[in-house]
Structures are given as C-alpha cells and as structure tokens.
C-alpha cells in the first residue's frame, strides 16, 4: 500500500488492486490518457525528484505536487523519524541508469540540504538529484554527458 500526499494537504491510500481498473495509455513521452469509470483524464508528468519521491503532475489542466510514501517510508514516519538514517548519507549513487545532463556543484563546495547536485536523464525524464544533507563535496565521480549505471557512485561528501 502506498500513501499519496497531494499539495501537502490531502492524503490518499492506494493499493495495487485499486489501480487495476484504471485504463492507462501513454500517448507520448510523459503524457497519459487515463480512463476511470468511463471518464477520460489527461495527465502529464511535469517534474520528478526521485530522492524525495515527489512529482509535479498536471491532470486535466490542474497542477499538483504529489509525494509518494511506500511501506518503508510509512514505518519510518510511524517511528517518529522524518528522514531516518538518510541524514548520514556520505555519497550519492545513481537511482537508475541514465545520462548526466548537468552538474551543479564543484569539489570542495559547501552545500545545504535540498541543494541541487546534478540532473540525471533516465527514460527521457530529467531527474533532479538533491543533497540529502548539509556538507562539503569531497569528490565528483562523473562528468557531464557521461552515461551511468544504476548504483554508480556519483558524488562523495567529506
């Protein structure tokens, strides 16, 4: 089961079974046609942040910020931890294979939590990877234009 928070004020619980009746067709890259109870819906993914599991989605000309919480996220939240052990992250690895489009940091640079580190293109979608914590960039292991595999080391913190 997933917990979906929309615009930080509405929360829904979604199960895999509840999504099965939806008829979803990708009409073009990041554009979808959804049929729910014979009602057509147009949806487009405008932006995504895999670190935070946050997406900006346009549905029938209305834009929504959507946060997705899986079972582990919900357990961590129930224990009273908002981020949990991720604050101790000392490196950033590629969440999926892709192409490094942009690097917004330099070695030795101080960064704050949520500062943009780099942009990774995967499946023709730009994914903004942000700093999981305040820190200093020790090394950058990739170059702009480079293709990386899933779990490839991208950046190390001091």
Automatic annotation (TrEMBL):
Quote the InterPro entries the UniProt record gives.
Biotin_BS (IPR001882), Biotin_Carboxyl_Carrier/Decarb (IPR050709), Biotin_lipoyl (IPR000089), Single_hybrid_motif (IPR011053)
Q: Which UniProt keywords apply?
A: Biotin
Indicate the segments forming the Lipoyl-binding domain, all copies.
80-158
Cited Pfam families? Biotin_lipoyl (PF00364)
Name the UniProt record assigns to this protein: Biotin-requiring enzyme
Does the entry feature the keyword Transmembrane helix, yes or no? no
The record's listing under PROSITE patterns reads: BIOTIN, BIOTINYL_LIPOYL
Question: Is-annotated flag, keyword rRNA-binding?
Answer: no
SUPFAM superfamilies tied to this protein: Single hybrid motif
